[in-house]
Amino acid sequence: MTVQAGIPATPPRKRLTRKQRRLVVIASAGVVLGLAAGLVAYALRDSIVFFYGPTEIVEKGLTPGTRLRLGGLVETGSVERGANQRVSFAVTDGKTRTMVSYTGLLPDLFREGQGVVTEGVLEGAGRFRADSVLAKHDETYMPREVADALKKQGHWQPGETKPGAPAAPATK
Fold first, then answer.
1. GO MF terms on file (predicted)?
2. 79 pairs with which residues across the strands?
3. What is the rounded CA–CA span in Å between residue 172 and residue 170?
């Protein structure tokens, strides 16, 4: 280093080693991936649909307009069919009931007393407008969430099929 007219010379710049360059690249990639994951989570926050039973809807005080999945048993004697494929029925968990309105074709296995999961919008005052009614191909199938809710309420029959599993084939 030489000094010119009282001005100290700047030291030569150190170059990054190969290891340091790799760490910088990896750290930069981690920041970019973290930012991308955060943006995806932020974008999906409105489209995430949660599962609730009728009692949970009342207890949590969910506001009308909330999009969710409602599950439970179709209350016996509550199915009313109208014109233009309109159907209304009550979904219950044994404690509380919620009236569901649906327009469209119901699954073939939809019956009173059977487990059902509907997806749609809460209209308030015990009313729910369903966009879809979910059913499984096996008539003894019950979604795990519905079975767990029924177990909590004490309505699960011990001899019934394990929740989420297909029934054993019938023997002759």
1. heme binding; metal ion binding
2. none
3. 7
Q: What does pLDDT average to in each consecutive run of 10 residues of the chain (172 residues)?
A: 64 84 95 95 74 87 88 91 93 91 90 88 90 68 72 65 44 38
141 annotated to a ligand binding site: yes
- Are 26 and 94 in a shared domain? no
Tell me, yes or no, if the pTM score tops 0.70: no
Based on the structure, what is the number of domains in the chain? 2
Q: Are 150 and 94 in contact (CB under 8 A)?
A: yes
Q: 52 a known binding residue? A: no
d(CA 161, CA 159): 7
Three-state secondary structure call for residue 149: helix
Question: Does the residue 90 lie in any domain?
Answer: yes
